[in-house]
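Researcher: Please predict.
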Amino acid sequence: MLFLRADPLLGIVYVFLVLVLAVVFPEPMYDGPENITYFQGEGLFRELTTNKKNTWIIMFYTTWSPDCRHVNPIFAELSQRFELANLKFGKLDIGRWAAEGERFRVNAHPTSRQLPTICVFEDGKEIRRRPLVNDKHRAIPFVFNVDNCVLEFDLINLYNKCKDTTKGKQPAAKKNE
């Protein structure tokens, strides 16, 4: 704004250079290891309603949100650390599938503070969500880091519960070994 105020031509050149740099050198995307299922369209809803024996931790995100980009490595680390046969991690891009965002009550508007949203689903029902939304429909800020996510979503107890459930369903021959 100071460039525009001091010299409009210099301000226009500066804005143009910033836009070119943002397009040519975008912020890098996370491409490390992860155990995440990517859902499209109604795939998540169908999975939650047909296969209720699994516990799902789902991240609702958009590709254009810088906050979502910063949470990607954290969510990938959690998926590597806590995934089991019946404790799974998934993502749904609500920028592409806006109707699904509405179905799961996640606002993808650029001014919304709900991105990213991470939810835990057990028996096909949502049991936890961060960030929370208050009575005035405003998101309560939440800092997404590994420690906060482990505590807020009670991942250690959830992992142990799912691990015990998996052990209890082994065939009789394997229990005796």
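Model: The helical segments are 2-6, 8-24, 43-50, 66-82, 98-103, 146-152, 155-168, 172-176.
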